[in-house]
Amino acid sequence: MSKTYKKICYIIAALTLIVGVAFTNQDLRNAVTDAGNTTSHSSGGSSHSSSSHSSSSHSSSSHSSSSHSSSSSSSFSSSGDIDDLPWYIAILVFLFVSIHWTIFAIIPIANLLSKNNKNKVVKYVIILEVIRVAIYAVMFIYSASIAMLVDFIGLFPIAFIVFPIMIKKDSNNVSSYTPSNSIENDYPEVSVEEYELYDIKNVEEFKTQLYKMFYDIEIAWMNFDYGTLKELCTDELYNTYKSQLDTYKVKHQKNIMEDITRIKVRPYKFTATKNLLTAKVIIEIEMKDYIIDETNNQVVSGNKTTIYNNTYDFTFVRNIHYIREKCPNCGHDLKEHQGTIKCPYCRSILVNYDDKWHVAEKKNIQQINK
Questions:
Q1: Euclidean distance between CA atoms 320 and 341, whole angstroms
Q2: Percent residues over pLDDT 70 in the chain
Q3: How far is CA 1 from CA 160, 170, 173, in A?
Q4: Quick one: pLDDT at residue 35?
Q5: Which tens digit of pLDDT belongs to each residue from 55-98?
Q6: How far apart are CA 116 and CA 170, in angstroms?
Q7: How far is 309 from 288, CA to CA, in rounded Å?
Q8: Rounded CA gap, 32 and 354, in Å?
């Protein structure tokens, strides 16, 4: 559900509440009723006046007509027949109810029918609106009162059922992992000292390198580029990706990822053993992500317009040789500091790298539809 749609829902709901509270005032209700009475009976009043002017001998009859008109006005004021409302108030009521139908019933139904495909939502909205207006028009020919009453009352059961279903369905599309406002706290970036300890001289270059690996993997995935995937991923992850891509090929489907934008790259943990250095990294991006059928280029999952904000937890690994148990420079015992890249005392480098970084694992820990 888009932020704009949510704002519109809040505004309409607020206006409805204001109008509802206002109409608890008896004077306001009487004013609307009197407006209808004045408009609907103005021509009749004029006729009575003419009759009275043409014949003075019928003054008592004229007085009787006036009394009848007054009685009729009083009767209308108490009954408030919808059929007697002025045309402009009837139109306002129709538009008011129509807006509520569109926001709280038509769009939610269209959204459910289209399975969140925005290209189809508009089509379903138009079809549903035409059906609703056609039903209203048929009832209006029979009775304006019944048409407005059914249109108004019919909204409530449908809106109270369909709108919550759409809200729940939309919330289910967002991952149940850690909310974005706590990711910063749960995955704090490593300190400058840790970067130095693991011999990372330029932090920004390191982050850019990791992000480029992520980007290249996404493009390789989209283009069935097995060679690039094998180069950038560990054997285990490559075999997983290959199996998934083979399934796409059999189905003649392709996962399209467009407008990929870097938001954050945040290493939050380093560990090292005698032969492996591991970096745990949070990568947050925005992109369009959907699946098409390559035989007809039609979208089969997702849509071409939705922008997703995705947060991933990546595991990068790099092979190393842990070459010392004592620092070759200062002689300090390093056994209690297993897993360090530099001597914690004199900062001498303790390992030799014999391989570049590879992606070992990728987890989507949060997805938000913008």
A1: 10
A2: 71
A3: 17, 6, 10
A4: 55
A5: 434 444 444 444 443 443 333 333 345 555 667 777 777 788 88
A6: 9
A7: 9
A8: 85
Count how many residues are written for the chain: 370
Percentage of residues of the chain with pLDDT beyond 90: 31
Cβ–Cβ < 8 Å for 121, 107: yes
CA dist 323 and 19 (Å) reads: 78
Here the tokens at position 259 are: 């407008």
Distance CA 284, CA 307 (A): 13
